[in-house]
Amino acid sequence: MIHIVLYREGNRLTGFSAKGHSGYAEAGSDIICAAVSILGCTCVNSLESVCGVVPRIRDNKEGSLVFDLPELSGEQSHDAGILMDALKQGLSDLAEQYPEFVHLSIQERRK
Fold it and tell me: Which terminus of the chain is more exposed, N or C, with fewer CB under 10 A?
């Protein structure tokens, strides 16, 4: 199972963690693992190329991706929020469609 956590501070999503393998199919043929990877990587790449925000990557090895947003304000905060909300929507849809393979939670970040 893939365990995904979206971190938030108040109403703002500030980080992402995805760990594990879905077990839906063999490695290299697993559409669920591929979907989570594409959603996470597209979000990171779009944060950089569209918003000019460089997320702090804490883990990016096989079977995991963990990143946090830096402190943001103004337009960057707004634009990054839209991308993070889109990530949340895609992951929510995936977890709803494949609940036996994807677990999604949202946790308040501790300061």
Answer: C
